[in-house]
UniProtKB/TrEMBL annotation:
Entry GO MF terms: GTP binding
Keyword Coiled coil part of the UniProt annotation: no
Superkingdom of the source species: Eukaryota
Stated name of the protein: Putative GTPase
Keywords, in A-Z order: GTP-binding, Nucleotide-binding
Keyword Hydrolase: no
InterPro entries xrefs: P-loop_NTPase (IPR027417), TRAFAC_YlqF/YawG_RiboMat (IPR050755)
Species of provenance: Ordospora colligata OC4
Length: 312
């Protein structure tokens, strides 16, 4: 009996066009739905006096409408990105004999792309999963993450940038990973440590598996492209609020919005539009994570830990 040929995962032009057409139709339906909702709101003439409760209800409808629109646009962008990066991955695989996936050791779960890993393994290409940013994660956690990955992806080699036993002279490699995961830094570090100049045929940036609190902290998404207040609130639910207040030298707070308001007051952020003001405060809040003044990591038990670095 002949070996059954594995079905190609590559998207045909027809399939790609079908996906994009469906997205366009969905977008039109969403716009019409929002227009109908706003039309109902606007039936009451502006000259008619409204109670405080009615005004609050109208404001809430408008706020929820904006959130739905932002979330839909985010979903649409991510779907289009999937179509684009799958084609790029196919191209990369065809050019390389070894593929390196660079993932963030602080957030292995959302920085891994298991769909791409499977594509590489099915083609018989050597896969090396590279854990980056291990210096910001406790050593015992790094070891447990490596052991867990070995069990889940037995066909792949699990390494850190300091481990170069897989590197060979003249090997042609492809590299993929999320934005901000340090793909170029990792390759440069491996070249220095091994003394071998890496022959990188192609590098592909892929989006995280999903938008989550940690992918926001890692800087994979611009706050202006997501419902940022929702994710800032999620982060404040996970982190020690008293430590945050001490670190940013702000007063105590109970929610993400309260924290953003406190940051605005402390750092003199003043804008007419509250969303614009809070967006700027949100970026100021995340700066401390990007500068490694607040460390974070997620263990195999799913628990997210934070460590505040002393500012002296």
């Amino acid at each position: 009996m002949g070996v059954k040929k594995k079905q190609s995962r590559r998207l045909t032009t027809r399939k790609r066009k079908s996906i994009l057409k469906k997205l366009k139709v969905d977008q039109i339906k969403k716009i019409r739905s929002n227009k109908k909702m706003m039309a109902k709101v606007e039936r009451i003439p502006a000259s008619v006096l409204k109670t405080d409760e009615e005004i609050m209800q109208l404001e809430e409808i408008k706020r929820l409408s904006k959130i739905r629109k932002t979330e839909y646009e985010e979903k649409m962008r991510n779907t289009v990105k999937v179509v684009e990066y799958v084609e790029q991955i196919e191209k990369m695989i065809s050019k390389c004999e070894t593929v390196v996936e660079v993932i963030d050791a602080r957030d292995v779960e959302s920085s891994r792309r298991m769909d791409v890993e499977q594509m590489v393994i099915e083609r018989g290409i050597k896969l090396v999963i590279m854990l980056n940013f291990v210096e910001y994660v406790p050593k015992d956690v790094v070891e447990s993450l490596k052991n867990d990955l070995c069990k889940k992806v037995g066909e792949a080699m699990i390494r850190t940038p300091e481990e170069n036993d897989w590197v060979e002279e003249g090997m042609k490699i492809g590299v993929f990973g999320n934005s901000k995961c340090g793909k170029n830094f990792v390759i440069e570090k491996i070249s220095i440590n091994s003394g071998i100049i890496m022959n990188v045929a192609m590098t592909v940036s892929v989006p995280p598996k999903e938008v989550c609190a940690l992918s926001i902290i890692r800087g994979c998404h611009s706050l202006s492209d997501v419902p940022f207040r929702k994710y800032i609130n999620m982060i404040t639910e996970m982190i020690d609020r008293n430590e945050v207040a001490r670190h940013y030298k702000i007063c105590g707070f109970e929610s993400g919005d309260e924290m953003l308001e406190c940051i605005c007051m402390e750092y003199g952020i003043d804008r007419d539009d509250e969303n614009v003001k809070f967006l700027e405060a949100g970026n100021r809040f995340l700066e401390e994570f990007h500068r490694n003044k607040i460390l974070f990591w997620k263990g195999i038990d799913g628990k997210v830990c934070f460590e505040f670095v002393s500012t002296g």
